[in-house]
Amino acid sequence: MSNQTLILGGIRSGKSALAEAEAATSGPPVVYVATATAGDGEMVDRIARHQQRRPDDWGLDEEPVALGGVLARHREEAPCLLIDCMSLWLGNLLGEEEGALEREREAFLDQLERYPGPLVIVSNEVGLGVIGMDALTRRFCDELGWLNQALAQRCNQVVLSVAGLPQVLKGSRGGGQSGS
Q1: Where does residue 69 rank: exposed (0-12), middle (13-18), buried (19+ CB within 10 A)?
Q2: Which are the catalytic amino acids?
Q3: pLDDT digit string (tens) for 70-125?
Q4: Global pTM value
Q5: What's the order of all strands across the beta sheet hosting 30-34?
Q6: Which residues pair with 162 in a beta bridge?
Q7: If pLDDT is split at 50, 70 and 90, which confidence band does 53 have?
Q8: What sign does the CA torsion over 90, 151, 135, 126 have?
C-alpha cells in the first residue's frame, strides 16, 4: 500500500498547510487537486491564498466532481496527489443530479484503493459541532462523516489538525512533530 494520509480539522485549523508540508516531503512530484469552485468573492480570495502558498513546480488538476477520474488519470505516473478538500467536493456533489454523490463517492473510493502513489487528502471534521438545524446541513454532516470514516479506514495515516498542531490518530508521521 502506498502512503495515503487523511488530514482532518476544523475551519482555519491549519489542515491545508499541514497537508502541503506532508506532500512536499513525499518524494515524487506533487499535483494539487483542487475541488473548490470560485462561486463568490470570498472563495476567490481563499483560492488565491492557497495558490500563493504552493510551490511553482507543483502541478494543478482542478476537478470539482469526478475525483475517481483524477486518480485514474494520474495512476501511471503516480505523483503525490494532494486533494483539497473533501468537504468542498461533497458540497459540489450535493448540488448535482440525483445519484451523483453515490456514483462519484464509489468511483473515488475504488480508485483510492488502486492508486500506487502517495495521497494526501484534506477534509473537514464535522463531528464535533452541533446538529444542523435544516435537512441539507444534517445531510452534509452525515455524508461527510461517513466519507471521513471510509477514508480513515483506507488510509494508513490519519492526522487531526487542531490550532495548527498535528495530532496523529492512525499511523505515524516520519520525522515530523506529532503533538501530544
Answers
A1: middle
A2: 50
A3: 999 999 999 999 999 999 999 999 989 999 999 999 999 999 999 999 999 999 99
A4: 0.90
A5: 59-62, 30-34, 80-84, 119-124, 4-9, 157-162, 165-170
A6: 165
A7: confident
A8: negative
